[in-house]
Amino acid sequence: MRESPLDWLPGFDKKFADLTHRMVKDLEKCMQCGKCTAQCPAAKLSSYNPRQIIRDLKMGNVEKVISSEELWLCFFCSGCYAVCPRDINFPFAIAMLRYAALAKGYGWEEVKKIKDPYAQDYYDTGLSVSPEEANLGLRGAIAKNSGTDGRIATIRKRMGLPAKRVVSEKALAEIRFLSDATGMTDLFKEIEKKKGLAKKWNYGSPADLVKIKRGPHQKFVDIDDERETKEGRPKTGKRE
Amino acid sequence: MPREEAVKKVQVSDRMFMFQPCVGNNKYPGIIAAAVHALPKLGVEPVTSDEQTCCGGFLTFTNVAQPTSTMPAVARNLCLAEEQNLDVVAFCNGCHTFLTEFSHFMNDRPPVKGVVNTILSMIGREYKGTSAIYHIVEILYKLKDRIAERVERPLTGFRLATHYGCHYLNGFKKTAIDDAFMPTVLEEILRACGGEVAEYSENRSCCGTGLTQVILHKEELSLPHTKRKLENLNDVKADAVVVQCPYCLAQLDRMSQKLNSRKAGEFHTPAIHVIQLVGLALGVEPRKLGFEAHAIPFDRFLKKFEKTPRGTGVHHQDTRARSEQQTEEVAA
Q1: CB of B92 within 8 A of CB of B21?
Q2: How far B240 CA sits from the closest chain A CA (Å)?
Q3: N or C end: fewer C-beta atoms under 10 angstroms in chain B?
């Protein structure tokens, strides 16, 4: 069935440009060439399809997109933007659509997994990456390579750096103020407490909630070498 | 192929603000140490500040913090460089993208900049937008002739693969110093260090971190994607893969270790950040470059490095892309 430009949501381009603070312009110029999806790493491994998402938006199916599972599969690699003949900044569109999804109640489980520990580390230490290594298999590999206990503090000291990257008290006070004043702290609290809605559906199947299929190349021997503990500390061994 | 107009715009100063990457500090301190030891050998003094925090890019694009919150944080970080009249050098595709995008956003929209400055005034700061933001690959490429001249330990006989990552070349598809699909700047830098290029077909493939995918969908998306890239790297038997981003470094290095521990393959190509590579070539001692923090060991690499003859300068080294050389040969 041929679609007609009259099917497209009127004024969509203007509405979407405003929603994205004009960071995503030209979404309506998409000509559905599919180059984005052809090179997309997520599209190779799942039903994620950037071209289809734009098509749905232009048809006015915004609710469909923001309640989908696929919205959360984007790698943010910007390969789509790089190949797009219309220069549509699609990763920014995904980021903005994710905010829209959160506003409607979808995706709170995803952001919860990011908030702890990364966002909390930012507030507590000024850096969003912790020096602790919870993955003991990895720490063991580093310990073996370095002849140390595998902790980054030990390695830093051996290299002549201070054991810890210190962010000054003044800086911490400043970023905490900015976080409190701009609502970031409140958002962290909301992420902790909020129980979002289950996503409604998945483009890969008409039935809802089919999980991302594992292809033959995705089956590894699942040896659990990670031995993670809840506290991230080894089961035996001394404390520092 | 480099964009000459973009390369011309890169201004190297004798003092530059070194924006410390989080993954660099807390997972791969060799990147920080390499910058501190190597840049002075090229005539650039890296200036650091304990007041500098995480760029905030990761938090923003993973939707745990709104741009309205992280934009003032970016402005605050950039103030630290502005106060000292310094331009900023980022060592991470993510940091560079985030600082650049948001600084341009603020500079292009005076009302937004005004609001940000109202908030910043409460902590006694003002963002002017006067500092330029560079990626370390831009600085090193601009200085590649100086690198070639000052090399003390040329990486003769080393076959090195490259991995540019995504955000710098793709995100800045029109303004980056190189083309998103056929880049050559890392190749030219590694040739300036005396090495040879090991080409492989998955060269422009994403590392697989996928921003959140390594956390949210590691088994379904991130790991299979990275495995494919690592398998292709294995085919080419490179001595190391040169990257320009700590997240890419962490992904290629740590996922190799994870797959090895699951007996899902044999992945032993070590990953090295371009600043560590340049540091090695300029004569910084290997023990200062933090290779022991890497999960895939550098033993074989460093043993080979010990045996390579020392020398001064990489002379008569044609650092141009092979395609340029071929064009010349055909024309001749």
Answers
A1: yes
A2: 16
A3: C
Cβ partners under 8 Å of residue A149, min gap 6: A143
The total of other beta-carbon atoms located within 10 Å of residue A189's CB is: 10
Q: CA B55 to CA B276: how far, in whole Å?
A: 22
Nearest to A119 among B64, B257, B263 (CB): B64
Question: Quick check: A167 and B52 CB within 8 A?
Answer: yes
Question: B279-326 pLDDT, tens per residue?
Answer: 999 999 999 999 999 999 999 999 999 998 887 777 655 555 555 666
Shared domain for B105 and B159, answered yes or no, is no
Contacting residues of B for A156, CB less than 8 Å apart: 29
Q: What is the DSSP letter of A211?
A: P
Query: Cα separation of B77 and A96, whole Å?
Result: 24
Contact B105 A23 (CB under 8 A): yes
DSSP string, A38-82: HH-HHHHHSS--HHHHHHHHHTT-HHHHHTBSGGG------HHHH
Closest CA to A184 of B70, B99, B77: B70
> What phi and psi values does residue A187 have, to the nearest 5 degrees?
-65, -40
Mutation site, B27, B104, B268, B292, interface A, largest A CB count within 10 A: B292
Question: How do B15-19 and B88-90 pair as beta strands?
Answer: parallel
DSSP A86-154: T---HHHHHHHHHHHHHHHTB-HHHHHHHIIIIIHHHHHHS-SS-S----HHHHHHHHHHHTS-S-HHH
In a domain, B33, yes or no: yes
Q: Among B78, B101, B136, give the residue marking a domain's end.
A: B136
> Among residues B107, B136, B165, which one ends one of the domains?
B136
Q: How many domains does one find in chain B? A: 2
**Cα torsion through B1, B4, B5, B7, rounded to 10:** 100
Chain A residues close to B201, C-beta within 8 Å: none
Please tell me the pTM assigned to this model: 0.89
Q: How far is CA A161 from the centre of its chain?
A: 32
Strands (E), chain A: none
* Contacts with B283 (C-beta within 8 Å, 6 or more apart), sequence order: B41, B151, B152, B153
What's the domain range around B91? Answer: 11-136
| Cβ neighbours for A236, distance < 8 A, ≥ 6 positions apart | none
Q: Kindly state whether residues B196 and B299 are assigned to the same domain.
A: yes
Report pLDDT for A217. Answer: 47
Identify whether B5 is part of a domain.
no
Cα(B295)–Cα(B251) distance, integer angstroms: 10
Claim to verify: residue B132 and residue B158 sit in the same structural domain: no
**Residue B287 domain flag:** yes
Q: Measured between CA atoms, how close is B317 to chain A, in angstroms?
A: 32
- The answer to whether residue B280 is domain-embedded is yes
Residue A30 confidence (pLDDT) above 50: yes
Residues B138-181 have pLDDT tens digits of 999 999 999 999 999 999 999 999 999 999 999 999 999 999 99
